[in-house]
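Final report, results section. Input specification for complex C-07:
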Amino acid sequence: MINFTVGPVQSSDAVRAIGGKNVPYFRTAEFSDIMLENERLIKKFAHTTDDSRVVFMTCSGSGGMETAIMNCLTKEDKALVVNGGSFGERFVELLKLHEIPFSEIKLEHGKALKAEHLALYEGKGYTAFLLQKHETSTGVHYDINLVSDFCKRNGCFLIVDTISTFLTDPFDMADLDAGVMITGSQKALACPPGIAVMALAPSALRRIEKTKCCCQYLDLKLALKNQERGQTPWTPAVGVLLQINQRLKEIDAAGGDEAEIARAAELASYFRNKLKEYNLPFEIISESLSNAVTPLHPTTQSAYEIFLKIKDEYGMWICPNGGDMKETVFRVGHLGYLHKEDYDKLFDAFLDLREKKFI
Amino acid sequence: MINFTVGPVQSSDAVRAIGGKNVPYFRTAEFSDIMLENERLIKKFAHTTDDSRVVFMTCSGSGGMETAIMNCLTKEDKALVVNGGSFGERFVELLKLHEIPFSEIKLEHGKALKAEHLALYEGKGYTAFLLQKHETSTGVHYDINLVSDFCKRNGCFLIVDTISTFLTDPFDMADLDAGVMITGSQKALACPPGIAVMALAPSALRRIEKTKCCCQYLDLKLALKNQERGQTPWTPAVGVLLQINQRLKEIDAAGGDEAEIARAAELASYFRNKLKEYNLPFEIISESLSNAVTPLHPTTQSAYEIFLKIKDEYGMWICPNGGDMKETVFRVGHLGYLHKEDYDKLFDAFLDLREKKFI
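Structure output:
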């Protein structure tokens, strides 16, 4: 099966080889060294300040989103959140659950965030801003500079979900003055799922210090304290952490985040050019694309039926959408260990389906 | 490295082979079938009632302990908890954090739970009981029948942490009338860490229905709803779940939980017999042993120094203790893919250390 979903994605041979070994005991200096190297390399690729920190939580990316809210925000905050799809909606649900006062910028699926959306909230005392850098469900890559500028002007603490764009599109945490960056092991890190990676700027560390987290398991005070010596308070997904280490070193050796981002950009543009060339009955639904994924609306067939057909008859996974986009949108990812020849096979399948009048 | 710790432990060849493959996309009927089979086999091996349920949470065993408390207990409860080591202490911390009224039965490290400890609490309106079936830190295997009888008499909802004894010692959830059973992927399930498995009796399901969980990521209502169709609300540690499936089928084919428990018992008694035979300067510190682990106090050398020596010079991991037991206790596990010859190598190392007057 070739995997074009947005996660889990395909891993390199060396990453998979680690998965095939026994998981070592981890309360050791050897494992601590690996965890400290993981922290150092994430800081490097996320372009954090030197005094930022990184923790590795054994949970999903959504778990990381909730961890950020539970540990950094309180009822004294006034948050602004962009909701343009399933993941923006999840931030909204989490703010409600944790009783953080907030306002919501609701965008139509596929629409970009513009200066006029933010203008309304200027100088209104907002203290925090929550944003998907890339709304993975609709493939909309928001203008992070616009949001960062708003936050700098208004003194907002910025929480950025970069789950699907870390290492596929540029991100400079220090320059953007972001407080929290969240990503997952199974996106461009191209490891199995199980770990949420969180980079925390000094502004976040100060907030965490003052905030009482309602959940011990996701308490960042404990995670930070343990990570000082390269450890975790609870048994983590040790195997995935070793795979992340391998992958980070691979990226570093191949030219760092810039080279990895260029690789994703090349795959994305290869796919998008072919899409035009073959004139397939798929419309790109996003006004503002990232390199991570291409979101498509098929005009002649149900999106979900195409997903099933490609899976069952061609041995490939494209990425279905859920909820009210199930029948209308599927996505093709450019994450993980994919090559141009893989896309050629996907286009062969699409062309065959057109030939057979399925699409 | 041979791994005698209490987790992560060694995996079978077939389980490791799955770890060496790419992780598949999981929002599919194929993955749902695997998850439903996982639920069915855990129910079988835990001897639950038919109307019990099982969920797989992407977190550590401690995350599972907290999930049980957050979803099943409220401030209206009056809980009783046995605290005889690090994990009992963790239950206590969690009850405090979540503001559940409780009383604590504090036992000295290594001591068994006796009827007289419980007598004090008889008929005093306790509504919940939290117990490590096996206090992994000290290797004390509590008398679960004693506790179950107390709970039946007093109408207590019983939460059992079987993290280190599920599949090493008998456990009949229906017979004990336990409400929640918690275990982890990296103990006798012998898979990589990342998943907490929770079996939930109808009494737990009723409590979950009525309780508002303060954490969306660990909300059992959402986990249960999704597991109805073999799915999870958030991206789980898909790879580990596939490995658990392989392992459960292996156990089923080899004679089920009884055969697996017999295998652990045989390893444990092989180790303990040799220990006597060689008259090593190690005292067993537990009054009541499980088959999962043998907890030892070395009388002639620091426990932690022995751990380091065995790791660095003999290529094996025994299991160090933390906190105030660091220098005085180490443990030798009987979990996972170990064989008698592995213990022979460990004894060779111990004998060599005695020869060299290190112990």
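The mean pLDDT of chain A is 98. Chain A is about 45% helix and 15% strand. This concludes the modelling results for the funded period.
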